Amino acid sequence: MEHRIDRIKKQLHAQSYKLTPQRAATVKVLLEREEDHLSAEEIYLLVKEKAPEIGLATVYRTLELLSELKIVDKINFGDGVSRYDLRKEGAEHFHHHLVCIECGSVEEIVEDLLEDVEKIIENDWGFQVKDHRLTFHGLCKQCQEAKVKTS
Ligand SMILES: [Zn+2]
Ligand SMILES: [Zn+2]
């Protein structure tokens, strides 16, 4: 954890930003809840537990800055809520998401899986792919099993 905060601190410094205590509190929450896909309000409530004096606007600005610097990715699973997701360390592409339409669970796929698709796009469209976002909507394992049991 310390080592990852340190890396983010360096990423900020490289762009002449400081890791202020407020920013550090926000980054800590993102690291602690890495598996989750939290909204700004949810992050704010967790940050407040560490730094009660912090305001929602500050947390918002920090999240915007972190997304500008590509430390976090802003995502939307189609429910109109922006969520913030820490980029995996050293990842060249943004991980994919499996969103269950029944229970709302979100799973992550870290493997790229899209090398072939990227090649086709680069060759046929002459478009240089830098990143992509992929969200699959469907039924998770648990929900499929629950359906089998009740039917
Ligand atoms: Zn994610
Ligand atoms: Zn489910």
Output the number of helix runs.
Answer: 6
Q: Rough shape? A: globular
Largest β sheet strand count, sense and barrel closure? 3 strands, antiparallel
Query: Based on DSSP secondary structure assignment, what is the total number of beta strands?
Result: 6
The helicity comes to 40-55%
| Uncertain residue ranges | none
Rounded average pLDDT: 92
* Euclidean distance between termini CA atoms: 45 Å
Strand portion: 15-25%
Radius of gyration: 18 Å
Q: What is the H/E string?
A: HHEHHEEEEHEH
Bound molecules: zinc ion
Word description of this protein:
The protein is an alpha+beta fold. Helices cover 46% and strands 17% of the residues. It is built from six helices and six strands. The chain has helices spanning 2-14, 21-32, 40-50, 56-68, 115-125, 141-150; strands spanning 38-39, 72-76, 82-86, 96-100, 106-109, 135-138. The strands form two sheets. Strands 1-3-2 form a three-stranded antiparallel sheet. It has a three-stranded mixed sheet with strand order 5-4-6, with no helix packed on it. A hairpin with a 5-residue loop joins strand 2 (72-76) and strand 3. The site of one zinc ion has 5 residues, from loops.
